[in-house]
Design brief:
This protein is α/β, with parallel strands linked by helices. It has 18 helices and 11 strands. Helices cover about 35% and strands about 15% of the residues. The relative contact order is 0.14. Bound molecules: oxidized coenzyme A (CAO). Oxidized coenzyme A (CAO) binds next to helix 1, helix 4 and strand 5.
Length: about 425
């Protein structure tokens, strides 16, 4: 048994934010029916294609464990199929541009008429306000949610991060909203709308920077690289690689950095292990020197301290440094390349990196479910081909008979041109 067995999702999502959410629910056991436009399907099937005419890794890696049905929502018969699906599903998830679902005829009022228990979950770029009608992609959300202005170096432009905090981050938030609404429905018997705006999701992930914005009113941010010599304006500056928490940290070069762009380690100069750090890097005198012994004395000298630690890390590979530092409980982390992560056996062993076989692509690697549950084990099943389960869903989920299925097909609602019989 899986945690969400018995939950049926009408997955009307595309691109990344929505599909991330529904993939997670599918891994947790929900039956996820992905509705796609006939012909093209989810636009990501054809984006960033590495093999011609084969579903892209962009698509396959966001749509595991789902079934695919093609429906033209503008065709009256297609709309009827969608209405039948609304009646039989528990959750409808969508991330169309603002207003698109209403224009298809699926207003919240209509959905409730069809199924009062339905949970309608949406991702939009912005919540109600001046930008509510805007279309939004990942990096726009990173910029509007406070991530870009606080990422990068002080002397450089704002910077986006490779982690998809706008899309995948919001999909995760939405999944939590959905399971909470399912739980509340047990008591109320009613569905509800769940909305996650990407700006809000990014801001939630950047909350330490809103913390710092308020700290700034009371003086300089002493753990930032701008302290003590640089200028602080009236907004949180970019903090380079300094730590977002109470323990100073920085990225330091390791042996081989001249040729390997990832020969670096993240080093945290955690106060409780300061004495061990001094011993490891060959600076035992710093343990008792009043200029270094206590954290407040170190704050104005962080750059010099990390430069000194780097003289030591440059004599070790990042993995050698990890081995030595971990013996002393000094928090640190190697900068791992995607190649190293793909080859890491322990991630394969836990199912975090999984090899999947696909009928037209062959074998590829994907990221499995990062949520590990002892009584709801996730298996990663390949993404569906476009419309692969159309007949199966009409027959087994909607219980349409052969005559009804033939009539819908002839109308062109599932793809292809309407036949003359349907037109007459
Ligand atoms: N049958 C018929 N029509 C369909 C259909 C189907 N099965 N599926 C989609 N459509 C139609 C929609 O009805 C819509 O039509 P109208 O705009 O004419 O009413 C149209 O396809 C396109 O939808 P869209 O506007 O959502 O798509 P887009 O490519 O122009 O915009 C995006 C993409 C992501 C910018 C937009 O969907 C959006 O802002 N979504 C919300 C925020 C979001 O999730 N962003 C993350 C995307 S991942 O980086």
């Amino acid at each position: 048994m899986k945690a969400l067995d018995g939950v049926r999702i009408l997955d009307f999502t595309h691109v990344q934010s929505g599909p991330t959410c529904t993939q997670l629910l599918a891994w947790l056991g929900a039956d996820c029916i992905k509705v796609e436009r006939p012909g093209t399907g989810d636009i990501t099937r054809g984006q960033l294609q590495d093999i011609p005419k084969v579903d892209s890794l962009y698509f396959t890696m966001l749509n595991h464990n789902k079934r695919s049905i093609t429906i033209d929502a503008r065709n009256p018969q297609g709309k009827a199929v969608l209405e039948a699906l609304v009646k039989t599903c528990d959750v409808m998830v969508e991330n169309f541009a603002p207003g698109a679902l209403d224009r298809m005829g699926f207003t919240w009022e209509h959905i409730q008429e069809l199924n009062p228990r339905m949970i309608l979950a949406s991702v939009k770029g912005f919540g109600p306000g001046p930008y509510e009608d805007c279309k939004v992609y990942e990096n726009v959300a990173q910029c509007a949610g406070g991530s870009a202005s606080t990422t990068g170096f002080d002397d450089g432009p704002p910077m986006v991060t490779g982690a998809q905090i706008g899309d995948t981050g919001t999909g995760l938030h939405l999944a939590l909203g959905i399971v909470s609404a399912l739980y509340q429905r047990v008591t109320t018997g009613r569905g509800q709308k769940v909305l996650c705006a990407m700006q809000d999701g990014v801001l939630n992930l950047c909350r330490v920077k809103l913390r710092d914005q308020q700290r700034l009113a009371h003086g300089p941010l002493t753990e930032y690289p701008q302290y003590p010599d640089g200028e602080f304006g009236d907004a949180v500056p970019r903090a380079g690689n300094s730590s977002g928490g109470g323990q100073p940290g920085w990225i330091l070069k390791c042996k081989g950095w001249e040729t390997d762009p990832n020969a670096y380690i993240y080093f945290i100069a955690q106060a409780p292990v300061w004495e061990a750090i001094c011993d490891v890097i060959g600076k035992p005198e710093w343990k008792t020197d009043p200029g270094y012994a206590k954290p407040p004395a170190r704050l104005p000298k962080l750059k010099q301290i990390f430069d000194t630690i780097e003289q030591w890390t440059m004599t070790k590979t990042k993995f050698e440094a990890m081995d030595i530092l971990n013996k002393y409980d000094i928090p640190c982390g190697p900068i791992l390349s995607m190649k190293e992560i793909a080859e890491e056996q322990s991630l394969r062993d836990t199912g975090t990196v999984v090899e999947v076989d696909h009928p037209t692509r062959g074998k590829y690697l994907t990221v499995g479910n990062p949520i590990k549950m002892s009584d709801s084990i996730s298996e990663v099943k390949r993404s569906p081909l476009l419309g692969e389960h159309t007949d199966e869903i009409l027959r087994d989920v909607l219980r349409f008979d052969d005559g009804r299925i033939a009539e819908i097909k002839a109308s062109g609602a599932l793809g292809g041109a309407p036949t003359r019989a349907a037109a007459e």
